[in-house]
UniProtKB/TrEMBL annotation:
Domain of life: Bacteria
Classification via InterPro entries: Glyco_hydro_beta-prop_sf
Protein name from the UniProt record: Uncharacterized protein
Length: 350
């Protein structure tokens, strides 16, 4: 922690691939939490890696009346107690059938009515990393009590940077506003990140204007979240975590900035400050960095929900350690993710 304004008060794992608690309900791991108060109850939308080895969007909820720091999140389940997949593609030929992740819930006006949407990153190929791992941004709409998928993407990449992913969307002052990652592809083993954040606006949340650069490749930010904080707005940014233990690698953690007026392009935001340094004194479950932040403000508390990458460990070592503690082996994976809550407290003036 290197800013004078906030101090980390608590870091709590909520859903872990490796340790306790595991998500269960047909889910091996979750990431990229998006937290909102919806109909008087806290909801968390997540990207989930299922036991069918596909990535889909699911929802977790707190009990009615619970505070956002309660931590007793439970996945919404359906038949056979499996997590309900929201707006899953109809078949393997769909443009996003290879995976859906990084949900961003937003409420706004379109075509004269109020709509609820979940924007997400959809994978267009079976390739996970590299230039062939094509991603685009899609959208679910809540209609007639169910999340329904729009058949095509609402935003795609360009020739130089063919993938767009990690969307974050808000609707304010009559405009839909999106920040997203523009990339050649997801970073693979031994590769240095090549990430550029961009910003765009829309009248209807479907047809988007030509984007502008928000953060440079040199800054290296992977994704962000935006929340109203009193009369102003707060943004928290993260870099892509060090999934494969690549050395050297850019510093990891969280950063924060504020905007006094409507959130928009980079000129409307204050200089970025470091909020969390995960390269120093981090717990194992987020020692390789955090990503996918969501923020809830609560007086002098700042609750950041995010996904941490575990310090490098082999599956065999993790399995042996778990068995000694009576836990089932984790799913074989090149890395292990844990989604948790980080609570920061505003430092008091001396």
């Amino acid at each position: 922690m290197v800013t004078s304004e906030w101090t980390l008060a608590e870091a709590r794992p909520l859903f872990s691939m490796l340790e306790h608690p595991r998500p269960g309900h047909g889910i091996l791991g979750v990431s990229d939490p998006d937290v909102h108060l919806r109909s008087g109850r806290w909801s968390m939308f997540l990207g989930a890696f299922t036991t069918r080895f596909v990535v889909r969007i699911v929802e977790a909820r707190l009990p009615a009346g619970a505070k956002v720091s309660d931590d007793s999140w439970h996945l919404v389940t359906g038949r056979r107690r499996r997590a309900v997949e929201l707006g899953a593609p109809p078949d393997r030929r769909a443009w996003d059938a290879a995976g859906m992740h990084t949900p961003s819930y937003a409420v706004g006006r379109a075509e004269g009515e109020t709509v609820e949407r979940i924007y997400y990153a959809g994978r267009r190929s079976q390739k996970i990393t590299g230039p062939e791992s094509r991603y685009a941004i899609g959208c679910l709409e809540h209609r007639d009590g169910a999340w329904r998928r729009r058949p095509g993407p609402v935003l795609t990449g360009d020739a130089a940077r063919p993938s767009v992913l990690e969307p974050f969307v808000v609707h304010t002052d009559g405009r839909w506003r999106m920040w997203f990652l523009s990339a050649i592809g997801e970073t693979g083993r031994g590769e240095w990140p090549d990430y550029e954040l961009r910003y765009t606006e829309s009248d209807d949340g479907v047809r988007w204007e030509a984007p502008e650069r928000f953060a440079s490749v040199e800054e290296g930010f992977f994704d962000n979240t935006v929340v109203r904080d009193g009369a102003s707005w707060r943004m928290v940014l993260a870099r892509g975590t060090n999934l494969y233990g690549t050395e050297p690698f850019p510093p990891q953690g969280l950063w924060s900035t504020e905007a006094a007026a409507s959130p928009a392009g980079r000129p409307s935001w204050s200089p970025v400050q470091r909020l969390l340094d995960t390269d120093a004194a981090a717990e194992d479950w987020y020692a390789a960095g955090v990503c996918g932040p969501a923020v809830v403000t609560d007086g002098d508390a700042l609750h950041v929900f995010a996904t941490g990458t575990h310090a490098q460990t082999s599956w065999w070592r993790a399995t042996a350690r778990g068995l000694r503690h009576g836990r089932r082996p984790p799913a074989p994976a090149p890395y292990f993710l844990t989604t948790g809550r980080f609570t920061f407290r505003r430092a008091r003036a001396r």
